[in-house]
């Protein structure tokens, strides 16, 4: 076997190849030196860069690599030991920095890779924020449309205008092909087509109110998508290849609608809902969005409120007109009553004057006849005439006083008088009558009773005398006591009239007069009728009382006048 010398013999340097290597090392060194400068420039331009120290290390690595190639330019030919030492030092430093950089990149590369993950996260977050902003803009747009619709609806209080405006504004805002309103009929068993937007269906068409689709819509306050083939959704005639758009229906509560007539609107039925149906354009891929359904629901509620306000206004106007008519009738009745009262007063005044003159003559002549010599029968007849005359005169006075009290024309004659003297005069008036009937009369005046008072002395005397006269009239034997004293505030309250609670003051006092007799008394069931005019106790009606039934009624009115 022949031996082979595998060691390649020395190859003399090719000048062309040397030039290419020289030029390549130069440009490599130039590129290595320019890269750190570019990195420094762009880092200074960047506001945030979290790895500056890594950049410094990487720049040192690149600079050393460039220095190695630059020093290598002097090693292509013969070179000194100094060049070899410098070259070796540069390569050692480059090796150290390269290894350190490689080790550091093990920790940095995962962070750099996570930057992409963060970028994707931020992109997703930005997309989510864009969707939320779109939703907010949609909600704002919906709110703006709701406010516009509400303003248009609330700008009138006419029911028909409210409903027509609602259909027009919904059709314009939502770009509807058709919109209709179904109202309950008078019987409440059907829904009647009352309003449409395009007028493509005749108003008056009816559907049963118990239809399953209608029950479904009436059972919720949300807008419900319904089939275009539903009777209430057939809002336009079918022609050719017709693909109806999506249809939704929503109930409209009739909150306060009386006298609600279709084509003058029937009265409110048992179903207190109307039905609003809305159809999107046909032959289109458009669908109902959530914000559009919310808009429809809000508008339905606003329509319900507007209809309620309109109904309340109509009722208030109707009540006002009725009240005006009643006021006119009351004013007419008042004038007629005033005319009748004036005529009655004129009649009573004339009758009072015309009847008093002959009555006084009868009484005077009867009194004179009593003083003459008369037989017992004649005296009895004269006494009867005299008694009847006095009774008739009293009746005339009572009727006149009562009529003046009832029409409010009676005025008290207020002046200062001696209260004690009034009671003494009262005692002098009744004593003769009491002595004839053998009745004793006792008068008791309280020590704190003022001697003088301000009031109508005549009417006070008439009131007390009327009560005492009844005691004399219905007492056959025994005694009559009259007690007068100042009433205390705690004893003034009337339990039957809790709102009446008079309070005495330094300038006023309340006089209480109590009259007690030994007569037969009054049945408890007759007490409520004591102060009713022309009413008498049944226990006394059969007796010869000579009473007209006006005395106590007049006394009560006098006392009420005293309290004013």
Automatic annotation (TrEMBL):
Cofactor: Cu cation
Topology in the lipid bilayer: Multi-pass membrane protein
Domain of life: Eukaryota
Catalytic activity: ATP + protein L-histidine = ADP + protein N-phospho-L-histidine
One BP annotation, GO: negative regulation of ethylene-activated signaling pathway
Pfam families found in the cross-reference section: ETR1_N, GAF, HATPase_c, HisKA
Stretches that traverse the bilayer: 20-41, 53-72, 92-113
MF terms (GO), sorted A to Z: ATP binding; ethylene binding; ethylene receptor activity; metal ion binding; phosphorelay sensor kinase activity
Record-linked SMART domains: GAF, HATPase_c, HisKA
PROSITE patterns for this protein: HIS_KIN (PS50109)
GO CC aspect terms: endoplasmic reticulum membrane
UniProt domain Histidine kinase: residue ranges: 350-559
Primary location: endoplasmic reticulum
Entry's localization field: Endoplasmic reticulum membrane
Record keyword ATP-binding present: yes
E.C. no: 2.7.13.3
Keyword terms, alphabetized: ATP-binding, Copper, Disulfide bond, Endoplasmic reticulum, Ethylene signaling pathway, Kinase, Membrane, Metal-binding, Nucleotide-binding, Phosphoprotein, Receptor, Transferase, Transmembrane, Transmembrane helix, Two-component regulatory system
UniProt keyword Disulfide bond, yes or no: yes
UniProt record similarity statement: Belongs to the ethylene receptor family.
Protein known as: histidine kinase
Biological classification of the source: Eukaryota, Viridiplantae, Streptophyta, Embryophyta, Tracheophyta
